[in-house]
Automatic annotation (TrEMBL):
<dbReference type="InterPro" id="IPR017896">
    <property type="entry name" value="4Fe4S_Fe-S-bd"/>
</dbReference>
<dbReference type="Pfam" id="PF11614">
    <property type="entry name" value="FixG_C"/>
</dbReference>
<feature type="transmembrane region" description="Helical">
    <location>
        <begin position="158"/>
        <end position="175"/>
    </location>
</feature>
<feature type="transmembrane region" description="Helical">
    <location>
        <begin position="84"/>
        <end position="105"/>
    </location>
</feature>
<dbReference type="InterPro" id="IPR032879">
    <property type="entry name" value="FixG_C"/>
</dbReference>
<keyword id="KW-0249">Electron transport</keyword>
<keyword id="KW-0813">Transport</keyword>
<feature type="transmembrane region" description="Helical">
    <location>
        <begin position="340"/>
        <end position="359"/>
    </location>
</feature>
<dbReference type="Pfam" id="PF13746">
    <property type="entry name" value="Fer4_18"/>
</dbReference>
<dbReference type="InterPro" id="IPR013783">
    <property type="entry name" value="Ig-like_fold"/>
</dbReference>
<keyword id="KW-0411">Iron-sulfur</keyword>
<keyword id="KW-0479">Metal-binding</keyword>
<feature type="transmembrane region" description="Helical">
    <location>
        <begin position="195"/>
        <end position="212"/>
    </location>
</feature>
<dbReference type="InterPro" id="IPR017900">
    <property type="entry name" value="4Fe4S_Fe_S_CS"/>
</dbReference>
<dbReference type="Pfam" id="PF12801">
    <property type="entry name" value="Fer4_5"/>
</dbReference>
<dbReference type="GO" id="GO:0046872">
    <property type="term" value="F:metal ion binding"/>
</dbReference>
<feature type="domain" description="4Fe-4S ferredoxin-type">
    <location>
        <begin position="253"/>
        <end position="284"/>
    </location>
</feature>
Amino acid sequence: MKKIPIIPVPIEEAELALFEERKKIYPRTQKGWFQTWRWVLVFFTQFLFYGTAWLNWNDRQAVLFDLVNRKFYIFGMILWPQDFIYLAVLLVISALSLFLFTAIAGRLFCGYACPQTVYTEIFMWVEAKIEGDRSARIRLDQSPMSFTKFRLKTTKHLIWLAIALWTGFTFVGYFTPIHTLATELSGFSLGPWETFWFLFYAFATYGNAGFMREQVCKYMCPYARFQSAMFDKDTLIVTYDTERGEPRGPRTKKIDYKAEGLGACIDCGICVQVCPTGIDIRNGLQYECIACGACIDGCDQVMDKMGYERGLVRYTTEHALAQKMSKDAMWKHVFRLRTLIYGSILGMIILAAAISLAYRIPLKVDVIRDRAMPKITEVGAIENVYRLQIMNTQETERKYQISVKGIPGAEIVNETQISINAATSRAFPVRVRIPAGSAPIGSNRIKFSVIDDQNSKVTVTEKAVFIVPK
């Protein structure tokens, strides 16, 4: 049987890209109601961030997370590691707030208050002031390197670096007293951890806001991926009215577009040009949309110029759009059972936390019994030794009275009054003695009471065990 020769067939090599190459987005500067509110929140959030670090309260920094000394100062309140429950409550409140706001109006936080959005907006403003509007920036990037291009790019990056470094400095200033930090920085004597976090946070700000921008929102932020779980058809979202806008097409202002069979959309592309993430809202809701409202402002201005009714792109719900609801009917569906439950739970947790903080006792006591065997005195009395850790969370020196009860005749042999400096803790031994025969052999429950000399309402009672030997 004759063998058929096998002729090798050349295989064409194909290059497969695992990740889509980033196309730089040049958002067009846009004015309008939503953009005004974005800038209001930019100023507000940055005023809080940069300004609060310099506020003083009772001769100390008003807000300081002193990790070294394990004290958190928040204006007139001092929190210690034992107050970790308040951090847990804060996280629960933040999560429920996110659920509530998302269920009502989608990614409002992303569009208006997220640090990534805020700093990207600041950096893009600097870029526009130095390099010009959208078309000027595109031309500059496409042009060959020249002295003018080098000068503009260098100026932009120097200002970006200055903002980033100031941001990193302020961030570290919430963990190391900012006045001390400024002195150390000016004297080039920053500690290793301060130096690391100062440069790390500055680098993150510079990189995320200056270069990565929408990539952080699209690929790094997990919220974009699970937001759909919190959306439903009564959630307010930025939406293009397809029924009114299609079929789209260019035309002059004089043309009666309805008679020509056209929709209200003139296909100008403004909604795409102003979008910071580069999406086309006319393609429907997309996870990249951060609900900033730039496309609404852009489209409304085009509608005004054409003499058309505003709202081709607007905040609405899928139900309202499909069923042509009025605004009143739409808002009734927005504040539905789901959002009312979220709001009620959130309100109760906030109220409970506020009451807990208001009635929080600024005194903490820990009692540890010494492991040494009980001591029997010459007259048969029995002594146990304890270690009391008393923490004064107030900002003034306090004196406390210590007493014990639970066994008849029980008394503290050593000092019963102790003075503790402001916002400090002190540990000291306490000897408790009971008369012979006043308690049965074995473990007996006793209670230590610590009372503020100047305010009897500030009192803490802690349980302990008194051992009577055989």
